[in-house]
């Protein structure tokens, strides 16, 4: 897999940290969040580790599952 430039890695990591922060505030496991967002648990884990460049539709799914506007994830 190609490596993202530093600024892109920072953005992916920040997004993942925010998802994890909100998930933990709600007391959800990765699996529970994945179920709510109709995503796979391993995909959610890779997002939280900053390994995924998340598609817009999945940002919306995560935001809805976390009960926040999509902009709150950025």
From TrEMBL:
Lineage top rank: taxon: Bacteria
GO CC, alphabetical: cytosol
Keywords: DNA-binding, Transcription, Transcription regulation
Residues covered by the HTH cro/C1-type domain: 19-73
Pfam families xref list: HTH_3 (PF01381)
PROSITE patterns hit by this protein: HTH_CROC1 (PS50943)
InterPro entries to which the protein is assigned, alphabetical: Cro/C1-type_HTH, Lambda_DNA-bd_dom_sf, TransReg_Diox_bact_type
Protein name: XRE family transcriptional regulator
